[in-house]
Specification:
The chain is α+β, with helices and mostly antiparallel strands. Helix content is 22%, strand content 26%. The structure holds pyridoxal-5'-phosphate and 2-OXO-4-methylpentanoic acid.
């Protein structure tokens, strides 16, 4: 199979249309058998649930070419389970988890020519999503839905790759206690757009959100969870009921403990503690682990000792071990790697 003529090393994180996408429609109380199609557009009622009341949720995962030439995904069962949780919270019918994993594999295989080669620095980003497709005008769940999976080859999420980021403490809240912060609902991202555009205008790469109830605890950013490293080498990651349960973060906790022998604390993290940490990173499928060099709280700068030129040493070890597992250079824990081909 011949790969597409793409400048893999210079891809950013933007949409490149690929050949095939998977579609299954829900009607009369059941999902149809689904199929791969070529049409990259969607035609729905102007009154569709997704357009009127944002009834939609999504997932994000990646396909990798491993060192020995296989195409794999990383823990897709956890994305399937998280989409299940998101659907339940949004009154969307659940797409069966085993079918989710199959649909992802089929879509990747159908777009094999777009799976970046091993060592190129790029990956194939996979975006499964579900939306209410039938009309609703009173506030209510739709009767019909579409589940869709598309793929797009991507490079680093943040421009500059592994260069440490500067983030700011946001004045806006991301998710209310008992709200929807723990699911991957489109609405969580719509409400973050104003804050991210404003952050970018002011020269910041991302927003650090604090807990809305007390504004004393670190939650997450618009698209990634936090990992901190203490001066004595412990990994600390915020625990909160209103952050997205990142699959990357959960995997890094295992990597830190079982591969690197580090102590890990998953607990509430006070913003006041941040000035004492040695390293900070943003972790997620898109972000992988992106190092943070500086955190600005209303003009008050916290400069992480790891600096603004390189990843801190612990962050780097975590990054290398995780990506080593994903690319097949390091043996993975059982069940983490799903071989597509
Ligand atoms: N937090 C938010 C708000 C996200 O959008 C994402 C991305 O999916 C993450 C965290 C990281 O989650 P994961 O590692 O499962 O991609
Ligand atoms: C991901 O990491 O997959 C996400 O969905 C984050 C998004 C902000 C691109």
């Amino acid at each position: 199979m011949e790969k597409k003529n793409i400048d893999w090393a210079n891809l950013g994180f933007s949409y490149v249309q690929t050949d095939k996408r998977y579609v299954s429609n829900y009607k009369d109380g059941a999902w149809d058998e689904g199929a791969l199609i070529s049409d990259a557009t969607v035609a729905i009622s102007e009154c569709a649930g997704v357009l009127q009341y944002a009834q939609t949720c999504f997932e994000g995962l990646k396909a990798y070419t491993t060192e020995d030439g296989h195409i794999v995904t990383f823990r897709p069962d956890l994305n399937a389970a998280r989409l299940h949780d998101s659907c339940e919270r949004l009154e969307i019918p659940v797409f069966p988890e085993d079918r989710f994993v199959e649909a992802v594999s089929e879509t990747v295989l159908a777009n094999e020519a777009y799976v970046p080669p091993y060592g190129s620095g790029a990956t194939l980003y996979i975006r499964p999503f579900i939306f209410g497709s039938s009309s609703v005008i009173g506030v209510a769940p739709a009767d019909e839905y579409q589940f869709r999976v598309f793929t797009t080859p991507v490079g680093p999420y943040f421009k500059g790759g592994a260069k440490p980021l500067t983030i700011r403490v946001s004045d806006f809240d991301r998710a209310a206690p008992h709200g929807t912060g723990h699911i991957k609902a489109g609405l969580n991202y719509a409400m973050s757009l104003y804050a991210i555009v404003d952050a970018h205008h002011k020269g910041f790469d991302e927003n650090m959100y604090l807990d809305p109830a007390t504004r004393t605890k670190v939650e997450e950013t618009g698209g990634a969870n936090f990992l901190f490293v203490t001066k004595d080498g412990k990994v600390v990651t915020p625990k909160s009921g209103s952050i997205l349960p990142s699959i990357t973060r959960r995997s890094l906790v295992t990597v830190a403990k079982d591969y690197l022998g580090l102590e890990v604390e998953e607990r509430e993290v006070l913003f006041d503690e941040v000035k004492d940490f040695a390293e900070c990173g943003l972790c997620g499928t898109a972000a992988v682990i992106s190092p943070v060099g500086k955190i600005v709280d209303h003009g008050n700068e916290i400069c992480l000792p790891s600096g603004m030129t390189e990843m801190g040493p612990v962050t780097k070890k975590l990054y290398e071990t995780l990506t080593g597992i994903q690319m097949g250079r390091i043996e993975a824990p059982k069940g983490w790697i799903h071989v597509i081909k």
